[in-house]
Amino acid sequence: MIEFLWIIGIVLVIALLVAVFVFSVYNKLVALRNRVENAWAQVDVQLKRRFDLIPNIVETVKGYAKHEKSVFDEVTKARSAWMSASTVGEAAQASNMLTNALKSLFAVAEAYPELKANENFRQLQQELSQTEDKIAYSRQFYNDTVMKYNISIQQIPNNIIAGMFNFEKKELLETAEEEKIAPKVNFES
Question: I need a surface site. Which of 57, 95, 113, 127 has the fewest CB within 10 A?
Fold first, then answer.
């Protein structure tokens, strides 16, 4: 009878240790998943800030460059794509599209010296530049957080618990292909 109680005691202790282990890993994975979601929310906040600045910049440029309709259409299309994005990947793609549209907008602005001298435009341009820096930092932080999460759900024995509770790999934010190409610099005039 005493041997039977010992066996039951040992089984209970092992079951308790396994349960503690599962709870511990599960809680760690939940914390990492929430950090990923928080990191995305931070990227989203900065993208929203940029999104809110763009109409002011567009209206300022429109006042000087009325005939540059295609550039304004490109910016509008990119903003619409960002608004309708429902996944991280779609939002990242729309953000890249918006970045390219803004480059075109600022290229147009270069052709108008009186616009470049406009204090309101310069202030908006500076705010946008600061926001772009914050977006870059937020994207980097997001990718670091996603990397930690993805590693954690793929490592043994975490991968067993992650599989049991449907923890799925998260998508990294990647740079658009056109942004990976180094710009050509020509000092000859």
Answer: 113
- Nearest to residue 95, comparing CAs of 40, 147, 150, 149? 40
What is the spatial distance between Cα 95 and Cα 156, in angstroms, rounded to a whole number? 35
Cβ-count burial 109-132 (b if 16+ within 10 Å, e if not): beebeebeebeebeebbebbeebe
Alpha carbon distance 41, 91 (integer Å): 12
Residue in 126, 68, 130, 99 with CA at minimum distance from that of residue 59: 68
Please report where in the chains the tokens 């932080």 appear, as a residue: 141
Q: What is the pLDDT of residues 101-151, one digit of tens each?
A: 888 888 877 777 887 778 888 888 889 889 999 999 999 999 999 999 999
pLDDT digits (tens, 9 = 90+) for 19-45: 999 999 999 999 999 999 999 999 989
Continuous H helices in the chain: 2-64, 69-84, 88-110, 113-116, 119-154, 158-164, 177-180
How many Å apart are CA 96 and CA 135, to the nearest integer? Answer: 11
